[in-house]
Each structure stands twice: as C-alpha cells, then as structure tokens.
Amino acid sequence: MREAERDQDAGQSGAPTPTTVYGETWVYESIVGAIPGIDIADRHAVVIQFAIFEVGVLALAFAYDLPGAVLPGTAAVLVAAAGSAFMLDIGNRARAPGVPERYRRLLFSSSIEVVLGVVAYVALLTYLFVWDPRDGATLFASLLGERPPVLPAALGLLVLWDVCYRIGTGWWAAVVALWRSVTQDLDADARARLAAVDRRTLGFGLLQSVLVPFVWDHPPLVVAVAGHVVAVAVVATASLYALEQAD
C-alpha cells in the first residue's frame, strides 16, 4: 500500500484517494500492512487469502480422506475472503474526504470488531465442544470424523476464527453506520458516499447466509447465523433510510 504513489495517482486523476492511516483501519488491514516486505493491491491480497486457504482445504481433505469437509470448508473460505473484500472496500470509502471524523474513529480506532469477533468465536467453540456433544453426533465429527486429525482440525478452527471476525466486523459496521446516519450532519456528497458504505455493509451481512445450509441440522447455529444476518440487514437498511430522509 504505497501512500506516495496513491497521492500521486490521485493528483493526476483529479480524484481524491483516501490514504490508509494506522489507527484508522480495520485490525485486518493493519496486520496485512505491517508485514515487512509485503506491498500488494487489495484485490491481490484477497485472492491470495482465498487461494492459500482453499488449497489447504483441498489438500488436507485429500490427504486425510475427508470428502465431506470440502464443500463446507470452501463455503467458509469463500465467506472469509469475500468478507475481506467487503472490509477493504468499506474501509476505503469510510476514509474518503468529507466523511465525519467521529464516525471514522469510532468505526476503526476502537477495534471493537475484534472484541465482537472473539465473543462470537468463544460462543461457537462452546457450542462445538461443550453443547453439541451432549446431543450425540457433533458438527465437527460429521466433517472431520470422530477422531479429527490435527492439521485439518487446526485449519478448520483458523477458518472459523476468520469467519467469526468478519461476523463481528459486519455487526459493528452496521451499528456505527446507524449511529452516524442519525446523529451526524452530512452534506449531499458525504451522504452519497456513506450510502455506498451502507449498501456494502448490507451485502457483507447477507453474504454470511451462505453458511446456513451447512449448519441446518444444528438449530442453535442456524438461529445465530440467520439472526446475525437479519440484524445486520435491518440496521443497515435503517441507516440507509435515515440518510435518505436527510436529503
């Protein structure tokens, strides 16, 4: 992410390009941007993320004879990678000129999306390894067998963390968007930019409904995932409505 080149390109095109300032980024962006020697475009980072995890899913499923893990694993990897693309797009738009600083700082600097992701991950692990075994066949066993191999289990837990982090991010983006739309004075240009952010936040939430078919036999997970999707959709739609009413 070369700030000098971005500024130069912006000057040549006449269109302002937001500069990534650490402290005003998602934690995901800060980690990627802080890796020494790594300087790649956003879309390339997302493609690499998807490729690494998907190759891992396919290779381990083949090596350990786990064909039933391929489709749900691919769906989770797709949700995580597409979630990264949404996060990067939302972040760039939220840092655009004219966007209220209070909104931007609340969205990024608090890092609350990490806290929400941790809460979601702990709740998921509690379900998988404490609640689910009480009912006999578990979701983890149905995918990886009664004695899950170490490497596929480790990769599965890592991908699940990725998904939970993006669930936390989507919820936080929606909540802060509604607060911003209701409380901040915005000009027409800012409202247009932020409406684009809200539409992407809505798409970010709806994306996670892809996971519902894979947990259909586990009602608590269905309720959790579907409830999150509906909540994000309602809050993001309310934010868009508030922006429209301010015209």
UniProtKB/TrEMBL annotation:
| InterPro entries for the chain | DUF7530
Question: Is Membrane tagged as a keyword?
Answer: yes
Q: Membrane-spanning regions, if any?
A: 45-64, 70-90, 111-130, 222-243
Matches recorded under Pfam families? DUF7530
Q: Which domain of life is it from?
A: Archaea
Keyword annotations for this protein, in alphabetical order, are:
Membrane, Transmembrane, Transmembrane helix
Q: What is this protein called?
A: Uncharacterized protein
* Protein source organism: Halobacterium litoreum
